[in-house]
Amino acid sequence: MLSLYRTLSLRYLRRRWSRATLIVISIALGVAILVATQMLKQSMVEAGLTAANPLAGTYDLEVSNSDFGVPS
Question: How far apart are alpha carbons 33 and 51 in whole angstroms?
């Protein structure tokens, strides 16, 4: 318990400000990477759904003349 208190005290952080700065920067960088990864995943999921069904949301039913020669 004493070692935990020693590492969290302000006096310790004032003496080792460079280490404290690196810790804060590494935590911020980790959070930024996590957010960017989640955004990339969501973007890839949406792109996959769009590629699988490009007409999703635009047509409920598509009727075509095909090869049978049925008059319009």
Answer: 27
For the entire predicted model, the pTM comes to: 0.56
> At residue 44, what is the residue type?
M
Q: Residue 39 to residues 2, 18, 35, 45, 58: CA-CA distances in angstroms? A: 41, 32, 6, 10, 25
Query: What secondary structure, in 3-state letters, does the chain show?
Result: CHHHHHHHCHHHHHHCHHHHHHHHHHHHHHHHHHHHHHHHHHHHHHHHHHHHCCCCCCCCCCCCCCCCCCCC
Closest by Cα among 26, 27, 2, 24 to 13: 24
Q: What pLDDT shows up at residue 37?
A: 98
